[in-house]
Design brief:
Blueprint: H1 2-13, H2 18-33, H3 36-40, E1 43-45, H4 57-63, E2 68-75, E3 78-83, E4 90-92, E5 98-100, E6 104-105, E7 113-116, E8 120-122, E9 127-128, H5 134-138, E10 145-149, E11 155-156, E12 170-172, E13 177-178
Parallel strand pairs: 1-2, 1-7, 7-10, 8-11, 10-12
Antiparallel strand pairs: 2-3, 3-6, 4-5, 8-9, 12-13
Length: 179
């Protein structure tokens, strides 16, 4: 069921141009930036997007001046966190994703807000990832407010959910915010 849903989402995503997805992404971040939890956050866990995901690069660059942005890095099949200090201090991973270099950020309790990607989310705030379980092992370590971000076509009424899956506090699409 999860595999089928991932394929369906990927197929639907292919209908949209990169420009459309970037515009949707801007709309998502306009909504996010209006939330109180974002205003109050000093430390934000985000992710550096790759094609087809909600585009995060501009958001990260914009807010790195007044907030501390922490990004995940895949290391030995688990996510470790590193502080973002500019694109010049990043390198391409084995997955082709730019990741920050430098020492690991280990004080998870400082993270106020986590912006979480997903293949799909549902109206009960459940998340379907890419199937590698990276976030499944990271999210339980956080006390941060969790915001799932996705395009409207990735939002479903119900998605497959298992006991190890970690729900969000809210989900934001370009059209709405779900609590």
């Amino acid at each position: 069921m999860k595999h089928k849903l991932r394929k369906e989402i990927s197929k639907t995503r292919a209908i949209y141009s990169e420009e459309q997805l970037k515009q949707f992404s801007e709309d998502i971040f306009k909504i996010l930036e209006q939330t109180q939890v974002f205003s109050d956050a000093k430390y934000i866990l985000a992710y550096y997007s790759f094609p087809g995901e909600v585009f995060t690069h501009d958001f990260i660059e914009k807010h790195t001046k007044n907030k501390i942005i922490v990004l995940p890095v895949v290391k030995n099949d688990v996510l470790v966190l590193k502080e973002f200090n500019g694109v010049g201090k990043m390198e391409k991973s084995a997955f082709g994703i730019l990741e920050p270099v430098g020492k690991e950020f280990t004080d998870y309790s400082k993270i106020d807000l986590a912006i979480v990607p997903g293949m799909s989310f549902d109206r009960s705030l459940n998340r379907l990832g890419r199937g590698k379980a990276y976030y499944d092992s990271l999210l339980p370590k956080l006390t941060a407010y969790l915001i799932g971000i996705c395009f409207s076509f990735q939002l479903r009424e119900n998605i497959p959910f298992e006991s190890h899956d970690f729900p969000m506090n809210c989900v934001i699409t370009q059209d709405e915010i779900i609590y």
